[in-house]
Amino acid sequence: MSRLRKFTALAWEILRELSDERAYRRHLERYNRPHSREEWHKFSDERLRARYARPKCC
Amino acid sequence: MAVLAAFCLAGIAMHRNEPINSSWLVIAAACTYATGYRFYAKFIAARVMTLNDKRATPAERLRDGHDFEPTNKWIVFGQHFAAIAGPGPLVGPVLAAQFGYLPGTLWIIIGATLGGAVQDFVILFASMRRDGKSLGQMAREEIGRVGGIIALLTVLVIMIILLAVVALVVVNALRDSPWGTFTIAATMPIAILMGVYLRYLRPGKVMECSVLGFILVMASIWGGRAVAQSATFAPVFTWTAIALATAIIVYGFLASALPVWILLAPRGYLSTFVKLGVVLLLGVAILFVRPDLQLPAFTRFIDGNGPIFAGKIFPFCFITIACGAVSGFHALISSGTTPKMIAREWHALPVGYGSMVLESFVAVMAMIAAGVLQPGVYFAVNSPAGVVGAAPAAAAATISSWGFPVTAADMSALARNVGEQTLFSRTGGAPSLALGMAHIFSQLGGSAVVGFWYHFAIMFEALFILTILDAGTRVGRFMLQDLLGHAFPKLGRTSWKPGIMITSAAVVGAWGYFLIQGVRDPLGGINSLWPLFGISNQLLAAIALCVATTILLKMHGAKFMWVTCGPLVWLVSATFAAAWQKIFSPIPAIGFLAQAERLEAALAGGQVADPSAARALIFNARLDAAVCAILLVLVAVILLDSLRVWVGVFRGTREARVNESPFVLSQLRPEEI
Q: The whole model's pTM is what?
């Protein structure tokens, strides 16, 4: 049961990484700032700018 | 594991004249990958790369909370797999199935284990030891300036061809299909809604927003059936191939010029989740259903006269299936985000090697999905009208004469069953893959909704192909701005609006030209464009393997060169042979120049109904030959440049200096990963 729980938690974290939610949490922790719309815009704009400057695989 | 792998591979190789169960392919693939991972990949990790967990990775040394961040290995694995998995491993095997299931399956399994996964793994390792440098930067440092410039140019050319060919796959899947067109059209407002939701209503709630988007997309698939059955709305969403191609070109331009958060980002998130979900669903469905393959091990088209693309197994099978076996594009991902997230050096093993064998497994599943179709149906869907005839009865008669019986009535019933007007000549691989997937899914108890499953599969393929199209156009625009910025500094500024418009239009114009060429091609376009894409992708893999071989040579001398040199020799042989044949073969169905000559002779003899269309086809055939030749020359130059470096190292006239960042002891605690 605990293995299943661990696997589910890991799968959830993978999804959160893919959705940038983990990266956003790291961003807030790093700069010690609370979540706000402006902070999300700042984080998201920078991250998406970098992401969409790299080619996507075929 | 090894014995089981050998037994199953022998089983699928020797089985003839009756359907084989797909479990043979699944077990052969899984056991080969497991054996390759346990022995070959670990040997490379321990002896060739000498991975060392005490050495701090760039994620630790350069940690910035953004790009460089030590991350749990399975999370990096998921991120890397999602980044390398595109339409290639799904479409390539479906097209290569025209030779039968055996050649493609063997190439997918063996190619990935000994070539593709090794390339991804070595490049990831090299980038990780060089502070996360890109393939182009490593080529410049390890081989020379010429190598770096050629890597950049090759990537740009590949992007153009890739975008054209994937757009063509979408056009062929959606033409004259109101259900499919409505579903994909609906994803645009859904994405914009998601963008607004994420930006203003619930900032940062990407998962929540993606769930909402997914529900709306599923609703649009259900709604698509009603649209297709409506006398009012069906004509609105029934588009010709040219109209669809034009719409996709306009979409590509808008997506490249608009802010990312409006359309690209929400679609990107949604597409990633849908892609992973569908791959998982297909894997589970194949394991439960264990369908029999109807396609034979070999078809008569191993003689090179295939209707989907012309040419023999060697070299064409090996360039048609790229992403599922060896893909140069993966080297860009392995030297992109991933090396900046690896916490421990040994994590590169599951991430680099493991992700690629999983991608290869996706390709095996695509081969199974194509193989479960009756061969007659498979060829009816994938053969262009220019080869089998435009009238259903004529097409069915031609295909039946090849030894694959099918009737116009069968095809009509099948089309009705999935809610389409016709399934004849739906070239590009996507519709036949969707049919195969729908067939497998419906065995799980959903036969009443086979039409839903078909359009679900079409939506899944088109959604992430369009994601590649919009992101690729944007990246192409950045690359062009970067290149042109040296001559016209203003054009290089990514904030200058006219510059954005001009370069976006140039990139869209380039792939749009090839797309229109493919749409107008009487042979369906895939026959010309997919080999071009395969050749360019494999040539990029050759560049990556040149870089990898140079690095291994500098590390160990000639001792371990064979690890990357073996796949390099094979790829160069297959790709150069394919490119040579595509340019110079005297058979018009294969050689671009022969095709142009035949058309010219017909034009001169007055045997052409539409001279201006014939002249356009002649120009396009010569253009394709020129693109192929440019790619060949570029890669030949980098090969010769690499050889020059290798000979210098062997003779001792060149310093075998490894450009790795210095060793720093890792301070990372286990709880930090």
A: 0.94
